[in-house]
Inverse folding.
């Protein structure tokens, strides 16, 4: 069973996401084990301090190195071969091909979800991968971590169900988005399903789908 551990100050944010739909199924099938690591438990001193002002001045607070190192090292004792993933805007842009590679890789994942104005740079020495989900600013790394977890776990064999479900999805070939799809009824509010999808001719259907797949930018 693969382990996914998340280091965060807000573990409760993950409850609904990781215990619903495909993420719940992945746990039921014993494909994945999720663990939340509360960074506050590794805080410094009687107040369990996890942040401090940056050297050199500036607004905001940075996550301190001591709690971050302790949390990551604790996670690594549970899963020594795991990837340590830092969610950061300067990281590699997340892509479907990377999700597939991580799903195939078999290694566990440890996510560091930063908060405030960022983190002490020294934590990078423990990190194997720095990942960004886009060129915009979020309050913390929790939502990006959820996105990556979802995109990887659903590609683990047996989680989606259908053998080809993941293969026909958007970005799976690295070039195109998924084609338009329809279900019953064949006509709804004067909008009809394309006739080619109703004729049962697999070759014509495949050509229509290829023709109507949008090129990914």
């Amino acid at each position: 069973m693969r382990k996914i551990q998340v280091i965060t100050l807000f573990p409760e944010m993950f409850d609904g996401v990781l215990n619903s739909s495909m993420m719940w199924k992945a746990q039921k099938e014993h494909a994945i084990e999720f663990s939340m690591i509360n960074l506050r438990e590794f805080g410094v001193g009687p107040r369990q301090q996890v942040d401090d002002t940056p050297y050199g001045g500036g607004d905001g607070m940075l996550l301190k190195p001591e709690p971050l190192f302790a949390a990551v090292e604790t996670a690594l004792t549970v899963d020594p071969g795991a990837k340590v993933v830092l969610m950061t805007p300067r990281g590699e842009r997340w892509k479907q091909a990377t999700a597939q590679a991580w799903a195939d890789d078999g290694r566990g994942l440890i996510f560091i979800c930063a908060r405030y104005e960022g983190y002490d740079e020294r934590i990078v020495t423990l990190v194997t991968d720095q990942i960004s989900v886009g060129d915009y600013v979020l309050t913390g790394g929790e939502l990006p971590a959820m996105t990556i977890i979802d995109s990887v776990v659903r590609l683990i064999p047996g989680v989606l169900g259908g053998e080809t479900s993941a293969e026909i999805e958007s970005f799976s070939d690295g070039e195109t988005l998924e084609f338009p799809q329809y279900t019953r009824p064949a006509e709804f509010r004067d909008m009809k399903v394309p006739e080619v999808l109703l004729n049962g001719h697999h070759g014509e259907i495949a050509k229509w789908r290829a023709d109507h797949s949008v090129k990914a930018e």
In short: The helical segments are 15-18, 21-28, 65-78, 96-105, 142-153, 202-211.
